Amino acid sequence: MSPPRVGVLALQGDTREHLAALREAGADPIPVRRRSELDAVDGLVIPGGESTTMSHLLRDLDLLQPLRARLAGGLPAYGACAGMILLATEILDAGANGREAVPLRAIDMTVRRNAFGRQVDSFEGDLEFAGLHGAVHAVFIRAPWVERVGADVQVLARAAGHIVAVRQGPMLATAFHPEMTGDRRIHRMFVDIVNGRS
Ligand code: GLN
Fold first, then answer.
1. Can you tell me which atom of ligand 1 is nearest the CA of 114?
2. Which terminus of the chain has fewer Cβ atoms in its 10 Å neighbourhood, N or C?
């Protein structure tokens, strides 16, 4: 089987690390900045960064509606941190003054932006992660947490009692940044989803 073409939304944020992680996980990764690139991918990673800025760039580049349409059509997506925020149906503390993060509504969940950030800006810890053997070392940077999930959403991990990783069908999201560690298990999990093997 040829490797699946997995895009990384490359508007802002740590795109390069995700491209490298996806390659190591067996995908053929490409940066996505325009409609034609979005149309060409079998799966999409939405990286960490700033969800408000990414929302504005999505609008400015006329990618918001095409992306929503592809997600609604079942395009597998993995969102990390800001990407998790964007995949939600509802965002709390989304920002103000016309610079709010906009929900792509791909995962039936309510996320609170910068939720951990109000307590401590960034931290690391070892988590149990459903479906993976052995702890995952998780790096959180001004991270969100999930306050509500719908009945079809599977909770994969928690930190300090809060939901920090979820899956709904072909959609995966983590509040932390696996691309910043050498552990490729979460990217591999996503590549397996894209390949229809998981
Ligand atoms: N706080 C950022 C946001 O609201 C997310 C931080 C991150 O992606 N590391 O989008």
1. 1
2. N
**From the candidate CATH numbers 3.30.2170.10, 2.60.120.10, 3.40.50.880, 1.10.8.870, the one assigned to the domain spanning 5-195:** 3.40.50.880
The bridge status of strand 122-127 relative to strand 136-141 is: antiparallel
CA of 175 to the centre of ligand 1 (A): 9
Active site residue 177: yes
Q: Is 49 annotated to bind ligand?
A: yes
DSSP structure class, residue 153: P
pLDDT per residue rounded down to tens, the chain (198 residues): 789 999 999 998 889 999 999 999 999 999 999 999 999 999 999 999 999 999 999 999 999 999 999 999 999 999 999 999 999 999 999 998 778 999 999 999 999 999 998 777 899 999 999 999 999 999 999 999 999 999 999 999 999 999 999 999 999 999 999 999 999 999 999 999 999 988
Taking the centre of ligand 1 as the mean of its atom positions, its distance from the CA of residue 176, in whole angstroms, is 10
Phi, psi of 166 (to 5 degrees): -145, 160
